[in-house]
Amino acid sequence: MLTSVLRRPQGLSKFYSSQTRPFVPPASLNSFDFRQRQREKPRPTTPTFYTARPEFYDQLSSLESALQYAKTALTTCHLLPLPQFAREALPPRVNAWVDKRELGLKLRSTLTTSRYRRVVLVLNELETYRSIAEKAGIMELQEGIRGITELFERADAATMLARGKAKPVKLDEYGRSYTLGKRKTSSARVWIVPVQQPPVDKSTASQSIPAVTEADSALTALLNPNSSSKSNEAVSVAQILVNNTPLSTYFPIPADRARVIHPIKLAGLLGAYNIFAIVRGGGTSGQSGALAHGIAKGLVAHEPSATTILRKAKLLRRDPRMVERKKPGLAKARKRYAWVKR
Amino acid sequence: MLTLPVRCQRVSCQLLASSSTSPLVQTRSYATQPKKGQIVKQASQGFKGKKNTPPGQMESAKKDKKMMAFQPLPVSQLPHPLFESDRPDSLTLQSFHPEMLTRVVESQALKFPHNDNDPFRIFGLPRNILVEFRLLSKPCSVIRSVTIDAINKLDAASEKNSKESRVVFTGPQGCGKSFLLLQALQYCNARDWLVLYIPRATNLVNSTTAHTYDMRTRTYLQPIFAYQTLQRFLKVNTPRLEQLRTQTGIEIERRHPVPPGTPLVELINIGLKDQGHAPTVLDAVLEEIGKQTIFPVLLAVDDFQALYCKSHYRDQHFSAIKSYHLSMPRLLLEYASGRKSFARGAVFGALSMSNTTFPLPVELREALSLEYDRPYGQYVKRQQELVEYAHGLERLAVPSSLSVSEAASVFEVWMKDRAVPSKPNDELFLTKYSEASGNARAFVWKGLLSSMSA
Fold it and tell me: What's the ipTM?
């Protein structure tokens, strides 16, 4: 560089010089061995060298470039700018990014809140574009963005996002569901298992005949409502055990029994599921309410189609009513002492 | 003639001298039921001495006059079209006939025959069943698998001594023990057995009937109850009793002995003429029919556990009189324990688990090997006499829940009688069946009849 400066001053395209320089004949310089002077410091690899946090800004810039790439890709697909109605149609996404400390470890620099926010902003934008790509069906772009965003997602993102939502009830290896129901101070643990139909032990020869007689008997039953014709179908009945006693023994009051059976009746699953429950706490009506709640949740696990009707009947909701506390100056929660004029 | 004072709501204890009976007859008149329409108020006795009381009335020991509820109105008093009195009766049931009682008619409802000398009408019914039969258009019951079992036992017992066939129906409350006993009773009556039915054994021990101490037997006699029992026994079994005669001579106090070869009907009439002789005559009659082998005998007792409990009678020290010190329960206990027996026949009993004044005692619970409801150790006293009276009783467990077909028949009976207030469809059936866990009483009373649903 020195020789080039000497040989041809930089930037000088003019023939006149504004600055006098001693004339050095070029041939005299041939003897000099102008080795490239070693840099004391290596040439910085990235332009962010001169920033306070080069790694951070590197990562940030790479994220921003990825964002830019995604944006151009979506723009070419005419998906950006997205009209308002389309943006609203996208599923709302609550993001669960790693916290400031974790992100600092990932980006190999300690982060302040404002820097963390900046990164999160970019990540949120990326996530938005990813959801647009997913909705539009552009799988390569979606997977590409996903590859970036999943690096910054929390390990327990699923649990964080599912916070406050009901855990989906799983059936165990025997097909039983286990749910909890509560009402006032009672709690009920409910196991629901489908009733096992007894194996049909008719011979194959008679298999075809019942099909005909069933239709006939149904027809005659419709035409003659007063005639009684018993079909040979086996009716399955549900067994309900509460604290290892049958339902009628545990709840002698008919209202409590009806409350327990109500969710099964609404769902139309009478005789379909056997129920075993352990109830603790409270009194009879609290226990029956808790049991009904547990049964409703269990039935939804087995038959999701019953969700609508049970929700409409407010059986899936934990009844929030609890005993109101006594207040000072009042005899009970609401009862006032007798008013005395003087 | 034994005279009985009839009072209303006043405790009075009168000592009456009577020529025909034992010299001292102590009656607790508050325990007897006042005759309907004749409530005599007692003025203070003072020093007036014995009052002239109306002659002894027939005590309604078995007819429950308090059951005025659930008396259905006659059809003529229901002119409003809402009652649909002109609609034909849709409940068509076959008659309960002994020949048809096989496994084929299981879970089918059959109506009980309507006779003049029907044992139900004469002997009476337990309270719950009485109310149910008043609500239904005709008395009927559903034949269950356990009915066929009981009937098979009866068929086997008809050839054997009653010592070998002493059966007690057990099961939780409302499972159908009393109904099963009724079905057995009707079966035996139709099969030409001699039947003696005590529908409410609690009435023997709850001090509602007069009791008198007898020096000869050293027990408390219950003359009125014995009199009623003889009367009804005679009425139900007249055609069979007319064929029987006494085999030995019978001694009755203050009377010349009854020679052998006397028709049993005549013997019974001796007891009916004088209430004081009734307990002795009843004992003798049962012994005579126990010796003969022409007709098998069925002794059916409902509320069986009441015989093993302490009675509500009090002696002069105010301690409760034991049930085996009363003549009627003692008689039944002796046949139930096998000390006395019929040459051909059986003794059937049905427990009543819903009676809290006469709960199931531990001696009977152990004899029938039933589960304990509370911890009984070896330090709980078991009365040796009751243990011996309960020895050898056989248990027939009535299933706690109706099967689906049986419940369906029960449902159909009530539905066709138009007694179900809700819409009778299969959803109601399954709902009430599940709520009741198959229990018969809960299904009918707390399920079908108690609730209204759209």
Answer: 0.80
